[in-house]
Amino acid sequence: MLNNELKKNPFVTPGSYFDRLPSIIQDKSIEHKKRPQFGLVPKLAFAGGGFMTLALTLFLAFLYNSTPESVPSSGPKVIVSDEIKSRMEEIRKKGLIDAKVNYLAVRNVNQNDILMAKSRNKE
Amino acid sequence: MDKSNYTDKELLAMLRNPEQRNYAFNLLVRQYQERLYWHIRKIVISHDDADDLVQNTFLKALENFDTFREEAQLYTWLYRIATNEALTLLRKRRNRFFIPMVDVENQLSKTLESDEYFDGNEMQRKLQRAILKLPEKQRIVFNMRYFDEMKYEEISSILGTSVGALKASYHHAAEKIEKYLKND
Predict the structure, then answer these.
(1) H-helix or E-strand containing A26?
(2) CA spacing 20 to 30 A to A14: which of A86, B13, B60, B115?
(3) Is this complex scored with an ipTM above 0.95?
(4) Residues near A13 by Cβ (< 8 Å), separated by ≥ 6?
């Protein structure tokens, strides 16, 4: 099926295209040469501007992250009811200070205690 | 102007001479414009795109003559620039809107259907549609071998692919096209 008849180029160009093309290209090549090439100083200025923008952005991000309000608490949020606080105080006084115990005691706060603490805080 | 007066070697010598450069460049354009234009046109289909790209090809060549290594033939080098320009355009279009490859080829098919600069019969149009269904590189190999009747060695030096791989590629392309022409 791929015979010689199909080899004929089916595409055409606008009239006299190849007569005009060399002068179009010649004109463009002259324009191209006249175009100011970026020298070293403008390049440095451009690069410098970009660097400053980046530095400023990073600085602002650092400032934002440094503000106390923006620092998320790393530990789990636990609402400790007054009862549990006093229990913890008791434990401390008795010399049974143990961070893990305190943590576990706090962790064992159940939902009811949390709700109670919340309602007391509102009062 | 008699295009055949100068060999590539003579053209290059004139191009390297600042006083003769413009004249030599004009000769170069006249000598290679049609071959390069048609090569590009078959890849991008649209005359307007091919027009832009052939101009870019010559301008790039002018900028880079100093880096041209004379071990390669001048027209091989020009063909390579032209091929890269065409493929770059297709890739830019593909990436600009994150269009998957198949849609760019569909766009080219649509261009083919509505192209005012297409003068072929229905069978030729069908052939072009079949060619557009080939993978990009295979399409280029097919065009260079079938329409331009280039030797595999020439195609190899332009595309940087081995002769064996090119023969296989052309063979597969021809099979696919024949199948499409029979079934469509």
Answers:
(1) helix A17-34
(2) B60
(3) no
(4) B37, B47, B117
Q: Which residues contact B134 (CB under 8 A, 6 or more apart)?
A: B142, B173, B176, B177
CATH number of B1-100: 1.10.1740.10
Under CATH, what is the fold of the domain B120-184? Arc Repressor Mutant, subunit A (1.10.10)
CB contact under 8 A, A18 and B34: yes
Q: A11: distance to nearest CA of chain B, Å? A: 5
- A50 Cα to chain B: minimum distance (Å): 24
Mutation target to probe the A interface, by most A beta carbons within 10 A, among B28, B122, B123 is B123
The set of residues, in sequence order, having a beta carbon less than 8 Å from that of A88 and lying 6+ positions away, is A80, A102, A105, A106
Residues of A in CB contact (< 8 Å) with B are: 1-2, 5-14, 17-18, 21-22, 24-26, 28-29, 32
Domain boundaries, chain B: 1-100, 120-184
> Token match 């234009």: residue?
B37
* Alpha-carbon span B143 to A7, nearest angstrom: 10
Minimum distance, in Å, between the CA of residue A48 and any CA atom of chain B: 28
Token pair for residue B87? 């493929």
The DSSP line for B118-146 is B---HHHHHHHHHHHTS-HHHHHHHIIII
Contact A6, B174 (CB under 8 A): no
Q: Decide: B158 and B87 in contact? Cβ < 8 Å.
A: no
Q: What is the pLDDT of residues B117-133, one digit of tens each?
A: 999 888 999 999 999 99
Nearest CA in chain A to B48: A13
Q: Measured between alpha carbons, how far is A115 from A108 in angstroms, rounded to an integer?
A: 14
